[in-house]
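Lecture notes, part 5. Sequence design as translation. It can be helpful to think of inverse folding as translation between two languages: the language of shapes and the language of residues. The source text, in structure tokens, appears below.
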């Protein structure tokens, strides 16, 4: 399977809202987008099974910390 931005965003939209934002930020912060693909896979791995709440919380914290770095 070929990993693309569209693939990761499509998968993230099936999970929880904060995941889409985190995936978008991971991919946007890399000079070469493909360098963020492994991070995206790791996020999805975190959310397997009953860990979706943990994954959502982690994504929200990542997005919040990224926002603090910008301000």
């Amino acid at each position: 399977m070929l990993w693309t931005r569209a693939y990761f965003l499509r998968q993230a939209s099936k999970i929880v809202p904060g995941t889409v934002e985190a995936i978008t930020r991971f991919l946007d912060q890399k000079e070469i987008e493909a360098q963020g693909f492994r991070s995206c896979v790791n996020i999805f791995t975190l959310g397997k099974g009953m860990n979706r709440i943990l994954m959502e919380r982690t994504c929200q914290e990542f997005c919040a910390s990224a926002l603090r770095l910008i301000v």
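The translated text above is only one of many valid answers, since several sequences can fold into similar shapes. Residues 5-70 form one domain.
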